[in-house]
Amino acid sequence: MKKTAVAPSNIAFIKYWGRKDEELRLPENGSISMCLSELKTTATVEFDESLTSDSVTIGGKTLESEVVRAVKHLDRIRKLAGIKTFAKVVAENNFPIGTGLSSSASGFAALSMAAAHAAGLSLSEKELSILARQGSGSACRSIPDGFVEWLDGDSSDSSYAVSLYPPDYWDIIDIVAIVSEGRKDIATSEGMKRLSTSPFAEARKAGIKNKITELKDALNKKDFTKFGEISEAEALNMHAVMLTSTPSLIYWTPGTLQMMKVVKKLRSEGMEVYFTINTGQDIHLLVESKYQSIVEAKLKDLDFVKQTIVNRPANGTYLDQKL
Ligand code: PMV
After folding, report:
1. Is 273 strand, coil or helix?
2. Which residue is closest in CA terms to ligand 1's atom 7?
């Protein structure tokens, strides 16, 4: 059977950094995110008896490290479905990969749903989220709709994501500023293994539960100032841990830093805009929709911003029934 699924990437306001179980990808802490409307992966999976090995292409290319992870994920799905058949996987992203826009989140969410259906499995949202998590942690948050929490469980069955609010709950805009095209030098999965080497790791851990409660409270009250302040401070907290790890992790490029300065300047001029950053140079600006056009106009004047992508909160992963 051949099935196609479409999955959004997501942006975390409270980040996932570090794992308490490497193999199962159980995170050190819970996290909160929003699915993004304009960053998507479309994956088509077909299990075919005539194949003698799996074939995986991403954007028409066979990228070694991604293929190894995708095949491992197909093995999980084959085991669940009790089949041995190899599969053909064709995945396309509508955005650059490896620059901090979480293509592994959308990629593994789309692969999980398409492959599970193609293998004849009928999984609940929770089961799909658990499956996606094992491919790439953040992928579990791309399964449910809108504003999402990844619950901090101690076992595989209790570590999955749930929707807190649907996409139309709050018209927040996430404007991605692409500041350079190069791919990050250290993969996120590798970077995370260095968490415990940072002298700030314990401090991060001590404060994170409270931060999750505070952010949920800001979401509940639609308090944009509180929401933005917590999100920006949290991104800097995670990067402080990265910068002080051994060996250190420096994901920013000059454009990232320039953009941070611009955001702070805009705020000092009365414009409510905040930033958040993942592992990579690209930077996400968080604004209320009423300020979208003003912020977009400002970004157009900046020569270090190569491209912008304007995202709204979106639904999670779905099966494309047309294909
Ligand atoms: O699931 P991964 O391996 O793509 O890790 C995502 C890690 C961050 O993007 C840095 C934070 C997050 O919660 O998305």
Report:
1. strand
2. 16
